[in-house]
Amino acid sequence: FRSLRIDNPDNDYIHLKNKEVRLETGKTYTFSFWAKASISSVKLVAVFGGVENKQQSLFWDYTPRNFVISDKWRRYSMTKVIPKGHNYYHMWFLSNHAPVSQNDKPNTIWIDALQLEEGTITDYKPLDYEIGVETELTKRYLTSTTERFPVKLKVTNNTSNTAELKVKYSIVDEYFEKTLNTKEISLNVEANSLVEKDIDDISPKKRG
């Protein structure tokens, strides 16, 4: 399996963020990850960013932590108690975010084994089955009905047994808060393996 690789040959500002997850007020959560860099002492910021609801873009609860990534694989973590009034959180990484994570040399960072858990840090344990999507789109919107939106579904089986898995996904126009399409597909995934499948029913014609 592959790690997330972030190449930064020009020392550009990099901002990598996940979709929001719902966390419970008053509980403690720990976000951890393994990382290494192509050179020693590369600065990276990890952030807990909380909003009151999914539609907000302004982060009312912003908790960054500065890390210095070595050229050897190491585990890094940050722990936070969720305050009242903030239920939706993003976890994200900032590199070359002046002045706290400004690096003076081109670099590459690898990130792997991300884990968000309730309580304090425990040993990393992948889920039995993991599902994700990958896109090579270099912009956030399409302007022509002939453009293809390339999305690939990836399903990982971390167990020692072959599994027949059903995956249900929806295509949602978040601006108009409208579900455009929902499908369920079946995939046969062998033990300790990864299966990829192109999702071909995403089109700029299907808008809210």
Characteristics:
single chain; 208 residues; mainly beta; five-stranded antiparallel beta sheet; four-stranded antiparallel beta sheet; 0% helix; 54% strand; globular
Q: What layout of secondary structure does this protein have?
A:
Blueprint: E1 4-8, E2 14-17, E3 21-22, E4 28-37, E5 42-51, E6 61-69, E7 74-81, E8 88-95, E9 107-118, E10 129-135, E11 151-157, E12 163-173, E13 178-189, E14 193-199
Antiparallel strand pairs: 1-9, 2-8, 3-8, 4-7, 4-9, 5-6, 5-8, 10-11, 11-14, 12-13
Determine Rg (CA atoms, Å).
19 Å
State the low-pLDDT regions, or none: none
Mean pLDDT across all residues, rounded? Answer: 83
Helix fraction, binned, reads under 10%
What class would the helix/strand composition place it in?
mainly beta
**Beta-strand level of the residues, as a percent range?**
over 45%
Question: Mind explaining what this structure looks like?
Answer:
The protein is mainly beta. It has strands at residues 4-8, 14-17, 21-22, 28-37, 42-51, 61-69, 74-81, 88-95, 107-118, 129-135, 151-157, 163-173, 178-189, 193-199. Strands 2, 3, 5, 6 and 8 form a five-stranded antiparallel β-sheet that branches. The two termini are 37 Å apart.
Summarize the structure.
By secondary structure, the chain is an all-beta fold. The chain has no helices and 14 strands. The protein is 0% helix and 54% strand.
